[in-house]
Design a protein that fits this description.
The chain has 446 residues and is an alpha/beta fold. It has a single domain, classed as Rossmann fold. The strands form 4 sheets. Strands 1, 2, 3, 4, 11, 12, 13, 15 and 16 form a 9-stranded mixed sheet that branches. The longest helix is centred in the middle third of the chain and has 20 residues. The N and C termini lie close together (4 Å).
């Protein structure tokens, strides 16, 4: 763990990254060799805060963090090999604008000048981008996709969804698209071949709250290596007494709202481009009747969401246990997570988070350990965060070979921050302890 000023300076971030590696007792030479393929996976969910387009530093991984890691790796690789910066943002996000704000084109030019024998590429891993108007899809456009293709991994009975019934909602108006990938013995994901084939996978998540899983850190950041959002269940349609987790309460209003939303999406799907004319008006009417999404809990945006954490852990199982051919890995994945918490995000994350100046970076060789520590530093109880809690309880395709008691923070953690949760999690995620104490033996978390 590294404490620094709550501002992004190239020199300060570069020094922090170096300190983190020293604290872990490793150097880049231990992780990579000349000619290797390295994947840098930032959190590039969206180009800015949804409602305040001038704000973005608390939303995405900062370019100085990406630049420091890329430059240090390029030097350690002797100027040969391939570094790929890749993510699959939300379907309606502007990838070029994200790259502009992260300064990735300038980084490419700098790396090429310093290390002409090394390739630094930037990939949008999405297969399709949408144009939305007032939250309604009005146009769809195909993208070049991952140039190395995608790997379909079916976890089957080893999925966290095995035996879980319900009508899964992914990203599109047609729930049948998601159902086709999660039914019976099929629980499959479409993963970037570039990510799956990397010799070293470096996760660069943002320290933020999240409306569906409580926090978005290392584990949740793997959503961006999946190329098609409809492979990703985000909630189960309906109220709890109907087997859903779309809403927290099983009352008549929520049942009516669920059916109205389903009808809206079905009509929008059937009318196609014509939806741009009537759908925004229908959405505004729905907001007046059922409440605006900035205040009302819907779409699984609450502490009882029992779906998204399962998808999150499945993606990590797929990365850590399968290779680019979709076969079980024959050698352990080389992995490192470095969390950008210099300016973090609290409140209505992940896309409408408010900035929180923390001056913090966290690194570790295991995503569960890193997220356990980061969750506590945010002032949350890890036992109330399903993605972290359940990661310690997996029976197959394990993500840990240790217990929470085995985690040691290097150096001293210091006093935790008190992040404001998303409003759907308020009162259900906060730590009740006056301070969080970690005691243990040894683990690579810094």
């Amino acid at each position: 763990m590294a404490r620094l000023e709550s501002r992004y300076s190239e020199a300060g971030i570069d020094q922090a990254v170096s300190r983190l590696l020293r604290s872990l007792g490793v150097c880049w030479g231990d992780l990579i060799a000349p000619g290797d393929r390295v994947l840098l996976k930032p959190n590039f969910i969206r180009e800015s805060h949804t409602r305040r387009p001038g704000e973005w530093e608390q939303i995405i991984t900062h370019g100085t963090v990406i630049g420091a890691v890329a430059t240090q790796i390029a030097a350690a690789m002797g100027g040969t090999g391939t570094i790929t910066i890749a993510d699959a943002p939300q379907t309606d996000s502007d990838f070029e604008r994200i790259c502009e704000r992260a300064g990735l084109r300038q980084l490419q030019e700098r790396i090429h000048h310093q290390f002409p024998g090394l390739v630094l590429e930037v990939l949008d891993l999405r297969r399709e981008v949408w144009q939305t108007r007032n939250g309604v899809v009005v146009e769809r456009r195909r993208l070049p996709e991952d140039p190395r293709g995608y790997t379909k991994v079916n976890l089957g009975r080893k999925s966290c969804f095995h035996g879980v019934a319900g009508r899964f909602y992914g990203a599109d108006y047609d729930t049948g698209l998601t159902a086709a990938h999660h039914t019976g013995e099929i629980h499959e994901y479409l993963l970037s071949r570039t990510a799956m084939d990397a010799d070293l996978f470096i996760n660069l998540p943002k320290l933020k709250t999240h409306k569906k899983v409580g926090v978005t850190l290392s584990l949740k950041n793997l959503v961006g290596i999946n190329g098609d959002k409809n492979f990703l269940p985000h909630f189960r349609v309906g109220t709890p007494d109907e087997g859903g987790d779309e809403f927290p309460e099983s009352n008549a209003k929520n049942k009516l709202q669920s059916r109205t939303i389903s009808l809206f999406k079905e009509v929008a799907r059937r009318t196609g481009p014509a939806a741009r004319f009537w759908a925004p008006l229908a959405k505004r009417a729905g907001s007046r009747i059922f409440g605006d999404s900035a205040q009302a809990v819907r779409s699984g945006n609450w502490y009882g969401n029992d779906t998204t954490w399962r998808m999150t852990l499945d993606l990590n199982k797929a990365l850590f246990h399968f290779d680019g051919e979709g076969r079980p890995r024959t050698k352990k994945l080389k992995y490192l997570s470095i969390v950008d918490g210099v300016i973090a995000g609290e409140g209505d994350g992940p896309m409408e988070a408010d900035p929180k100046e923390c001056g913090l970076m966290i690194a570790g060789a295991n995503p569960v350990a890193v997220d356990y520590v980061a969750t506590a530093l945010m002032g949350f109880d890890w036992l109330k965060v399903p993605s972290v809690r359940e990661a310690f309880c997996l029976a197959e395709l394990l993500l840990t070979d240790f217990s929470p008691e085995d985690i040691e923070i290097v150096p001293e953690m210091g006093k935790p921050f008190r992040f404001q949760p998303h409003f759907g999690w308020v009162g259900h995620i906060e730590s009740s302890a006056p301070r969080d104490v970690f005691e243990g033996t040894r683990l690579t978390v810094a």
